[in-house]
Amino acid sequence: MYPPKKALTFLRWFCREDCLEEIEGDLTEVFRKEYVHAPRKAKLKYCWRVISYFRPEYIKSFRNHHANTYGMYGSYFKTGWRNLVRNKGYSFINVGGLAMGMTVALLIGLWIYDELSFNKYYANYETIGQVWAGGTDPETSVIEGNVAIQYPVSSVLRNAYQHYFKHVLTAWWITDYTISAGDNKFIKKGEFIDEGVLEMLSLRMLRGTHASLNDPHSIVLSESAAKALFGSDDPMNKTLKIDNRIDVQVTGVYEDIPRNNHFSEVDFFSPWKLWASSNNWIKEAESNWDNRSFNVYVQLQPHTTTDEANAVIHDFYYHNLPNDFIKEAVKYKTFAQIVPMRAWHLYTEFVDGKPVGGGITFIWLFGLVGIFVLLLACINFINLSTARSEKRARETGIRKAIGSVKSQLVGQFLSESFLVVLFAFGLSIMLAVLLLPSFNELADKDIIVPFHSPVFWSGILAFLTITTLLSGLYPAFYLSSFEPARVLKGAIRPGRFAALPRKMLVIVQFSVSVILVIGTLIVYQQIQHARNRPIGYDRQNLISVRMTDPSFRDKYDVVRDELVRTGFVSETAFSDNPLTMAWNNYGGFDWKGKDPNADADFTLCYVSDTYGKAIAWQIVGGRDFDKRLAGDSAAIIVNEAAVKYMNLKDPVGEFVRDARGTKLEIIGVVKDLIMQSPYEPVKQTMFTWNKYASSNIIIRIKDTDRPAEAVAGIEAVFKRIVPTAGFDYQFVDDEYSKKFSQEERIGKLSRIFAVLAIFISGLGLFGLASFVAEQRTKEIGIRKVMGASVLGLVQMLSRDFLLLVVISCFIAVPIAYYFMSRWLEMYQYRVAISGWIFLLTGTGALVITLLTVSVHAVKAALTNPVKSLRSE
Amino acid sequence: MTNHSLGEFEELVLLMVAAQHDEAYGVSILENLEEKLNRKVNISAIHVALKRMEDKGFVKSRFGGITEDRGGRRKKFYVITALGKRMLDKQYELRTSIYKKIPKISFG
Fold it and tell me: Going from the N-terminus, what domains does chain B have, and what CATH number goes with each?
C-alpha cells in the first residue's frame, strides 16, 4: 500500500518544500484509492504523476544564495588571526613546526628538481648517448660491462650505421692536464674528443663556432678557463701547451656549462685526433679489438629512438668482430647498447646489463623523508587542533545555531589552517634562503631558489594547497561535526575512542622518527666501520704527485735525491697509479695447480723498489724488493687475497707465468692494500718492480706540524728540476677520505633529518601534554587534596604518552631493520646490525618523551590545589 | 503586477472551490471535477491552477489535520476570497449578458 519508493524520493528531492506537503499528500491519497482496484497500474500512474510535477514551478532552487562571500572569508581570517594571537604557545608550535617541516620539504624539493634536471642544459638531451659494451660471465652468469670501448668501434659505427647515428665521437676520459700559457702553468680538466662535440652538445660559443675544433691543433676553452689563463686578454689564436708536449692554438671559447651537467667540470675540449697522434699506443690501438680503453659518445639521427638503435647495435660485435675474436664473444655473449643521456646521472648502476639503479634511489629516499618530515609537522597541527576542539566547540555550536551549514564551517576551519600554513611558508622561505648555502655545501650542489620561475610558484601553490588540506581537512571535519544542541548545553563528552586517531598519529610520528634515527645511526656505524678497516699501509704523511710531463724521463733519481735532501722527506717511490686507485687488470696468468678453465685475472701494479718502504706496507711472508738483487726485476710481491685466489699453501718461492710466458717468482706476501672501494673485498693484486713505473711519485714526508712547509719545499724541488711541469699533488689520506664522501653526505643529511623529525615530534608531544595537563587541572587538584603524591601524579600524566612511544618503537624496529639490512647489502664489507642500536634509540626516544611530557606533568602536579579548584 | 485574468480551467477549479466551501482540497476537487466533466483530469493541473490562483489572490489556503490515508501528510484546504468571488461574479455576468443577446434562433 506504499507508493513506489524511488518516485517518492525523487519527488522529495526536487520539489519545493512549501508545495511538497500538499502534493505528496494528495498523490498518496489518490494512489491508495486506485491501489485497491489495480495495484500495478496505480504504481505506474503514481510515477507518471510525479514526473508531471517536474516543472519549473515546483523544482526547488539548488543554488545557494551567497551573493558575496568575500566578507565571510574576511571574517574567517579575522577569527583565525584572533585565535592564533590568543593561543601564542600553541600557535608557535604549529607555525614553527610546520615551518621547519616545510623548509625541509622545500630544500629536498629543490634538490630533487636539480637532480632531475641533470644534463637538461643540452638541447639534444633526448638523443645523446654513450656506447656501453658488456657480456655474461660464463661462470657466475652475471651480466657486466662498462663504457670502455675498443677504438675500431667508432669508425664502424660511423660508416656502417650512419643511418642511425648523426654523431659518433671517440673520446678519452676527462682528466687533469697541465696547461702552460707562456710561463704560467695551470692544472685544468680536459676532454679529447672528436670535433663534432661542440655541435652535439650545442654549446653556446662566445668566440669561434661549432667548427672550431676542426683544426687538428685546436683547443676550445670554457669561459672561466679562458679568464683564468688569459685574464681580460683576447684568448683567440693564443698558443698553449698541454702537458708540456702537445702544442695547441685557442680557436674558440664557450659559455661555462652549468654544474648539474655531464662535462660541466671540463675546462677545455681538444680534438681526439690530436690525442691519438700524440700517443703511440693509441695509434697502435686504432685497429685493435683487444684494447678496451676509449669512450664512444653518439647522437641519434632524428626520428631514431634509443630502443631502435639498441636493437640494431645489440649484436654489433657478432657482425663486426674479426674472426679470431668471435669465439670469445660467443662465450661471453657480448652485446652493446646505448646508454641514453637521461640515464647518465641517476641510473649509473647496472643490473643485468640495464641502467636501473644509482642516484634515483636517493631521489626516492630523500623524497620520502621530505614527505615524512612534512607529515610529522602536519600531524602536530591535526593533533593540537582536535585536542583543543572543546575550546572551539561552543563557537561551532553558535555558528550552526545562527545558520551556518557544515560546508561553511569546513571552509572556515580550512581557511584558518591556510592562514597557519601561509605563515609557516613565509618563515620557511626565509629559512630556506638562509640555509641554502650550507645545504649546497653539504649536498655538493649549486642550487638557487628560482624565484622568477612560474613553474616554481605553481609548484609552491600546489605545495601550499596540499599542506593545507593535509593538516586542515581532518580537524575541519571534526570540528564542524559537533551537534549544536549538545555543544551549547556544555556537554561535549568525548567518547572513549575520541582520542584514538590522535594517539595513532602520535604513534606514526614517533615510528617515523625512530626509523630515521636508527637509520642514521646505522649509516654512521657503517662509515666508521669502513673507515676503521685496516688498509694495509700507513696513509698519514703521504703525498702523491702526478708526473705526466715527458721532461721527467731520466730525472727520477735526481728528483728522489733532491727531495730527500730537503730534509722534509724520508722516502720516495714511483708507481704507475696513485695509491687510492688500481687501473691495470690483466688476465692470462698461470701457476702450479691452477684450474685450467678459471679466469686468471689480477690487478697489476708497477712500482719501484722503495714502494713498500715508502707506504709502509706490512710484509707477512718472504721479503721486500731489493735493488741489489738483479733477479728482482722478474720478481713479484702478492697480497693475501692473491694467495687465497691462487690457493697456494706456501706462496713464497712459487712461480707465476704471465700471458707472454715470462716466469715471475713470488718473493713476498703483503697484507691486503685497499686501493679501490673500502666497501668491497680487495682484489688479488701483484706488485712488480718496474723501472718505468713512473706516472706517480709517492713521497713520505717526515712527521711534521707544518705540512704546508713541507709541500712548499717539495714544490720548489719540482719547479727547479722540471720547470715545465705543473705541480699536481694530493695528500693520500685526503684522497682516501673522498671514497667516503657519498656515504658521509647521506650520513650528514640523514642526521639532520632525524634530529628535525625527533624535534618536530617532540614539539607536538609538548603541545599535547600541555593540553592534557590543562584539561585535567581540576582532577589533579582533587587528587592532591586526597593525598596523591607528586611522583604519582607525574606518572599518571606521562604513562599514556610513554605507552604510545613504546608502541612506536615496536613498530619502527622491524621496519628499520628490514630497510637498513637491505641498504647494507649494497656493501660487501659491512657492519653487522647490532641490537644495542635499537635499544639505544628506543631508550633515547623514551627519555625525550619523558622530558617533554614531564615539564607539564611536574608543573601541573606542583600547582597548589587551592588555585586550581578555586577558579570557576 | 499580478495578472487578474482567469483561465478556463482555473475558472472550473475556482467554481469547485467555491462550491465545496471550506472543504475543498486537491483530491476532492479532482474527484468532483472528473465526475462533472466526465473525463480524466490530471491532478498536477489542479495543483498548478490552485497555486496560480493563490498567487493572484483568488483563493487562500490553510492546513488541516493529519490523516492516515495520506501517508501522514496534512490536507491543504482552499477557500475562495472576496476577490475570487468577485471574479466569478464578473465572469458570470459577462457570460449571461452576452448569452441574453442571443436572438431566438430556431434550429428546426
Answer: 8-98 (1.10.10.10)
